[in-house]
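Design job #97: recover the sequence.
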């Protein structure tokens, strides 16, 4: 996304990404005994709560509802945590930005990449639940996970790039973004099936790229199905969001030093 990024060698960029990602992991899990297991426990706890409310109390008629929940909650956590953390990605790395010369766009990328690593750690949990409910992973996971994962990586990075840049100048975003994420969560078919949405409101799914992602993950994990036309549409959305995020970042990055 940065105009002058071409002067950095790929090896140098990989090294910077590795160092910053490792730093973020150490900061997050400093003095934490269970470490990354908290990243799995968090969505599992919410899945338990939602299961109790929607399956046992409201009696939602969705088969294998526990698997249905976690196959939506785990990829959602990757997206939501990345976007929420993006608000402070430049602010929390102010000293690094001032003292080191490197592409600043790597900072929000490392945050997204770290959450992606957490997401990968949840895949064995999904497999365990599938086996418990008499299902099994599909061979299509081998190319489906990288294919959908890359689309989510691009989309989330583009959004994180825009949010992390804008938050330096408009601090009200720190209050609006979490509210927007919460609203998007309930507007995305994670707790409920997309079939439950009335026909006249189905168009809301097509204009919400996150909905397409969550549905794609669920179809892959539970059915082993990949809808390639929908994947192509997701990539189109992801590239558009990345272009918008890169534009905002490139317009504002020259003022980062005076703000930080």
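Job complete. Output follows.
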């Amino acid at each position: 996304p940065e105009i002058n990024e071409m002067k950095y060698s790929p090896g140098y960029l990989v090294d910077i990404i590795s160092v910053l990602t490792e730093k973020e992991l150490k900061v997050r899990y400093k003095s934490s005994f269970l470490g990354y297991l908290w990243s799995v426990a968090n969505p599992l706890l919410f899945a338990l709560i939602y299961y109790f409310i929607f399956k046992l109390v409201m009696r939602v008629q969705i088969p294998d509802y526990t698997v249905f929940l976690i196959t939506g909650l785990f990829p959602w956590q990757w997206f939501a945590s990345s976007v929420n953390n993006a608000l402070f990605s430049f602010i929390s790395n102010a000293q690094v930005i001032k003292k080191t010369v490197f592409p600043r766009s790597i900072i929000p990328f490392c945050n997204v990449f770290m959450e992606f690593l957490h997401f990968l750690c949840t895949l064995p949990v999904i497999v365990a639940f599938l086996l418990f409910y008499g299902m099994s992973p599909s061979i299509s996971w081998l190319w489906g996970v990288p294919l959908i994962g890359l689309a989510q990586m691009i989309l989330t990075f583009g959004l994180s790039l825009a949010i992390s840049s804008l938050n330096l100048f408009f601090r009200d975003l720190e209050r609006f973004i979490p509210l927007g994420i919460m609203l998007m969560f309930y507007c995305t078919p994670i707790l409920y099936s997309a079939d439950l949405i009335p026909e006249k409101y189905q168009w809301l799914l097509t204009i919400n790229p996150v909905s397409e992602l969550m549905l794609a993950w669920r179809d892959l994990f539970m059915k082993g199905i990949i809808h390639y036309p929908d994947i192509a549409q997701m990539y189109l959305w992801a590239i558009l969001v990345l272009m918008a995020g890169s534009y905002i970042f490139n317009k504002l990055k020259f003022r980062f030093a005076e703000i930080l």
